[in-house]
Please model this.
Amino acid sequence: MIECLNLSKQFGHFKAVDDLSFTAEKGQVLGFLGPNGAGKSTTMKMITGFLEPTSGQIKVCGEDVLQNPQLCKEKIGYLPEGAPSYGEMEVGDFLYFIASMRGIAPRQQKAAVESVIERVNLTNVYFQRIETLSKGFKRRVGLAQAIIHNPEVLILDEPTDGLDPNQKHQVRELIVNMSKEKTIILSTHILEEVHAVCDRAIIIADGRLVADNTPNEMEKMSRYNHAVSFVSDLDSGLLNKIKALDCVRDVSYDARLKETTVFPSQGLFIFDEISDFLKSQSVVVDSLKMEAGRLDEVFRTITQDSKEREVAK
Ligand SMILES: Nc1ncnc2c1ncn2[C@@H]1O[C@H](COP(=O)(O)OP(=O)(O)OP(=O)(O)O)[C@@H](O)[C@H]1O
Ligand SMILES: [Mg+2]
Model:
């Protein structure tokens, strides 16, 4: 549905996007992760036809974005960074305007606007001027205009940025529900969102693709994969005893959270051993669990490695 091949964007001498290739399939939510300035928004602007690539090719639903920009734009709903819109317009009028710009027939516009108002929870601000809305509501108006024409492809640049926890939850549900019939690319800095909505994620650093995987596979790259953690008051003697176990590679202790993390020796499952050991020592623990891995740690490792490689060049 979306294919990017050797995509690059140069601003003067600065390469914001550097030889990026990836695809996004129908029914899939693809997450864009990466540090600030990595090139996520620039890539989205190229896919949606707002910026011309310096080199490379983009296809949306089989059509080349450069050769058939209008056809591609018709198939895309786009929530840009910051959700720009017309501040002086009221929410309802703005959505009717977008409905007509998107080519929705006049007799179907009312249904389209009402449906989107309900899905994105805008009923209470229908008559309010957009410039007077709070940040989260502006974002919701941005999301409403992106989905009003039921596009095949959705490009959402940080869709939950600035939303309160209830709205975040609701927007994530909306994205997951829409994803079955669409191809969705979203960018986010919220790593828990990757689990909640993305089938696959790519990590971009300095304009380059540094990882492309499912969230579960990404977690497996974490040193926390299969680590066992628990909360308890432990003295250093006990920590050393755990560290001395054959199946244990390392132990860390977070004094503030009173959380111990036990890292297994290569490839071992140590949950039972650790649980038995704690029982044998009559240690009372809270929330003993085996970890799947921590995406924030994988993100930091991957993006810092890429920075170090850059410095070493
Ligand atoms: N029009 C432009 N002219 C010059 N440089 C630009 C332009 N647009 C973007 N850049 C630069 O390209 C780089 C990538 O920017 P981009 O907005 O794509 O990052 P991002 O990954 O979306 O970051 P964030 O997480 O902060 O949104 C940045 O260094 C930015 O300053
Ligand atoms: Mg951005």
